[in-house]
Amino acid sequence: KLNPAPASTKPPSTLLGPSTIPTPSKSLNDRVGLLRGDITTLAVDAIVNAANRSLLGGGGVDGAIHRAAGRGLLEECRRLNGCPTGSAKITNAYKLPCKKVIHTVGPIYDAGDHDASEKLLVSCYTKSLELAASNYCRTIAFSGISTGVYGYPSWLAAPAALSAIRNFLLENDKAGVIEKVVIITFEKKDVDAYNESLPLFFPPA
Ligand code: ADP
């Protein structure tokens, strides 16, 4: 059986608005990249952590980031009083090779209300990019958000992420702070989802 779409699921193309295939742009495409590997090894300005609302660490990528950063990160996170779903907070990076960590809280995927989940996931990407820009982070790397234990299907999460990134670069980053957005995937399902969606949102120029 092929992945059946939940009843309320929109195809990725509707995330693009009325004109389905965006105009190809080399300069825009150059600002987005896909990598496969471990986000804790990246020496970018900011990495984005798929955190939970407590911001006190957890499993998956959150656990990996806290382990690599050391106790200083947990101590700083304790002072933040958590973070609502769909929002983001920034900290220092301690023993990590990056400069800052942006902690965002993705939604637990609700197939019965796909639109609400999608809105929150898009908000995670937009708020993280806003925080990066306002903190002069020019290079930012995202792990998958909600695509692990939070259950968001990768083939629906990838187009939502790319749509948010595209909109941010075109509409919200007027000052041109963000030079490069890297999406770092860990598992094959995420690699496949991004390879399929990337040319829809960032068509080859
Ligand atoms: P969530 O609770 O938001 O679903 P998870 O950490 O369970 O967060 O998963 C988010 C994504 O992070 C998943 O797609 C998973 O494959 C990926 N991931 C897990 N560890 C790492 C890592 N060290 N680097 C990059 N991505 C990772």
From TrEMBL:
<feature type="domain" description="Macro">
    <location>
        <begin position="19"/>
        <end position="202"/>
    </location>
</feature>
<protein>
    <recommendedName>
        <fullName>Macro domain-containing protein</fullName>
    </recommendedName>
</protein>
